[in-house]
Structure of Large ribosomal subunit protein uL24:
Amino acid sequence: MKLKIKKGATVQVITGSDKGKKGTVIAVDANAMKIQVQGVKVQTHYDKKDGLLKKEGFIDYSNVKLVEAASKEKKTSKKATKSKSA
């Protein structure tokens, strides 16, 4: 299934322990229908070398709503920009 939420979009959590938090989408797993949001579902992991590490966990796609879509920048060719300025 194709997801409407893409990497870089701003979303708000609507259910769960992090309800009401807003963040930017870091990663999307379309097969499992899960997304990773910055600052939401922060998990702590202990590593022998680095000590305690904090990392965002994946949350279900249905638990968030889209606030602002990821912006797409228009690609312009060099020829088009030269002809406009000339």
